[in-house]
Amino acid sequence: MIEVKNVTKRFDGFTALDSLSMRVPAGAVYGLVGPNGSGKSTIIRHIMGIYRPDEGEILVDGQPVWENPAVKGRMGYIPDDVFYFLSASVRDMMKYYRGIYPGFDMERYEKLKGVFTEVRENKTIRTMSKGMQKQAAFWLQICLRPDVLVLDEPVDGLDPVMRRQVWGLLMADAAERGITVLVSSHNLRELEDVCDHVGILDHGRLLLERSLSELQENIVKIQIALPEGAALPEGLNLLHESTTGRLKTLILRGEAEEIEARLSACAPLFLDMLPLSLEEIFIYELGGNDYAVKDILL
Amino acid sequence: MFTINYRDPRPVYEQIMDEIRKLIISGVYAPDERLPSVRELAGQLAINPNTIQRAYRELEQSGYIYSVAGRGNFVGARQEVDVQRKAELLKTFAETARELRWLGVSEAELASYLREGETEK
Predict the structure, then answer these.
(1) Residue A262 — pLDDT band, cuts 50, 70, 90?
(2) What is the pLDDT of residue A263?
């Protein structure tokens, strides 16, 4: 479990994190989204114990991360820009990690050679292409058998086949060992598949933090055509309404079945319930009060 | 075994439910046969295990499958499939029938389709 409590961080008078609190439950796959400059990488570096907060605290499984090797030894991390020693190859880094991380799994390392076939084990990582460097990073981090894995824009630069491959490995790990994953990304479509919790960051604050099923179950899109003169029932929690001819499109908050029952009571000529994508949910949940959300979705 | 369609607006767990249901109905999985584990599916489809767990849970509620603690999920016996799904299918059937009638298909023709559907099995 990762707990971030009222963390504030300023750089040269610029407030990057503004009393930010978030909670990643144990075993969750948590997607962190937000526009550029919203503080995603900053909070991730705090969680990894690279930055020290000006105010507030960060706990991983109840313990502070800062300068705490016992906790850090159980955490894996892929930063937005991967870093390796000057002339280190994957094999060199493996030997280095093996000495530091108690959970390093040699058997797994050998097995994963079969997955990352294009990564040459003895080639200097720094001379590899960006995508190859990311693959090398995944290879090494998965071998650490971390309890907590933090990924900053991890699939950036990976080809679609590799993305799937890597997510498949991580999801199998999540199912088997209940690994906690925190992942930042711009790609909502991708997060929808792999995450069970989502947090939206903007200007160093958390706008929303919810489980995905909670988000999806409490909002419905409805197309309805009412007979002449009939009106919608009172007391619906309407988020959005648009009309084309006789057909109304409604976005409603509430239980799908209950809403359907209430609307069918007005004897509509046509009634259709449509599922909403995560992108649409975000637009309607937040669109009204914060247009920054539109940037996230680009 | 099956794939998730990324352009499909339906939630992922619903897609998984539908796919498994199709495989059960078509007989690819026989009654009492073990279904792939949550871990296998999560890895194969690159989908959150909770999503797959949820699809299995809902399939269990409607009687398509049953789970045995520690052993996995198995295809259920046919008569247990629930009334809700029946109602759902009858509704789509009624909608289709109405459209076919509107398009000028006669009742006798529709009835012959019904009989054909039965003899196919």
Answers:
(1) confident
(2) 85
Q: What is the pLDDT of residue B121?
A: 44
Beta strands in A163-298 (DSSP E): 180-184, 197-202, 205-211, 219-225, 237-244, 247-253, 270-274
* No. of helices (H) and no. of strands (E), chain B: 5, 2
B101: helix, strand or coil: helix
Asked if B4 has any chain A CB less than 8 Å from its own CB, the reply is yes
Q: Residue A24, CB half-sphere, CA atoms under 13 Å: how many?
A: 31
Residues in chain A: 298
Burial class (CB in 10 A: 0-12, 13-18, 19+), B95: exposed
> Which helix (H) or strand (E) element contains residue A30?
strand A29-33
Contact B48 A277 (CB under 8 A): no
The residue in chain A having the minimum alpha-carbon distance to the alpha carbon of residue B92 is: A272
What's the gap in Å between the CA of B88 and the closest CA on chain A? 13
Amino acid B80: pLDDT: 59
Nearest-by-CA chain A residue for B54: A213
Q: Are A263 and A234 in contact (CB under 8 A)?
A: no
Closest chain A C-alpha to B121 CA, distance in angstroms = 32
Per-residue confidence (pLDDT) for residue A218, from 0 to 100: 82
Distance CA B121, CA B116 (A): 9
- Enumerate the β-bridge partners of residue A197: A30, A211
Which domains, and CATH codes, for chain A?
2-203 (3.40.50.300), 214-297 (3.30.70)
pLDDT (0 to 100) of residue A260: 84
Q: Do A168 and B45 touch (CB under 8 A)?
A: yes
Nearest to A262 by CA among A237, A285, A280: A237
**Among the partner residues B10, B14, B43, nearest to A171 by beta-carbon distance:** B43
Mutate to test the interface with A, among B16, B48, B50 (most CBs of A within 10 A): B48
Q: Are A282 and A293 in contact (CB under 8 A)?
A: yes
Q: Tokens 């003899």 correspond to what residue?
A: B119
Q: In Å, what is the CA distance from A296 to each residue of A160, B104, B108?
A: 21, 50, 56
Q: Which residue in A164, A176, A277 is closest to B39 by CB distance?
A: A176
What pTM was estimated for this model as a whole? 0.81
